[in-house]
Amino acid sequence: MPLNDGYGVLAGTLHSYACDHAHRDGEYYHCTLNVKAGPFIYRCPVDLDSKKTSDGFQWRVVELGRTSLKGVAGFRDGWHSLRSDNRSGALDYYRSEELQPSGACVSVAGQPVEKSANDDGSDCAPWRFGTGNAAFRDLEPLLKHARRIYVFGESFRNGKGVHNIHQNQGDPPGSRWYRENGSWQDGGVVAERWNHTMAAFLCKFKSQGFLLDAEPSLSGSAGSAVTGSHRDRSSRKARLSNGLKPEPGGDGT
Length: 253
Fold this sequence. Notes:
This protein is mainly beta. The protein contains 1 helix and 11 strands, in the order E-E-E-E-E-E-H-E-E-E-E-E. Mean pLDDT is 79; it is low at 108-121, 217-224 and 226-253.
């Protein structure tokens, strides 16, 4: 099943970013990217919540080199809907060749951040396991050096913004997000540096499985997950955590 409000990518420039001060039980930890596209500022809350565990959040940074992102890099600033297939520029963590979707990259799933999936000598970008704070330490350098940014995910139903900026498949049966599992609709943040090289920040939750048997199909349902909940549905006031232009009052809503 597709995401409720469709899938696509926001192209623009980073205006500012901020992370939540703290959160109460039932709320999720976000770092919100404010992306300027034309005359508008789009709110893009990246859910980095580890549910107060030391390994509840999982992420990887993939160097893409100089790439057109299958045409996405040529898009004008703004929101662009994408078909969920391998020709549109859509992302799939397990089917997009440029994301190095190797089974070796998840062969040590469940290990802490100090361990990585390339410890065995493979050359894939490793999945890391840890807290949201640790994940943000890998995301922030991409933000600081970005001349342009591409945020993949689901458009806000109301207002201008993007959410579900993470893996959107592999949720287990019985979870509230199981029906939105699907291939070629994963979220992520791709930063284009001033030297025109790109890097992608990809992330998922421990409750979501790795799809080691995913077929490189054009479209369709996701493969079966091999590991095993929460997903991003809330935001709160944020504190400034960068050297970019501050947002008055922080994240707000």
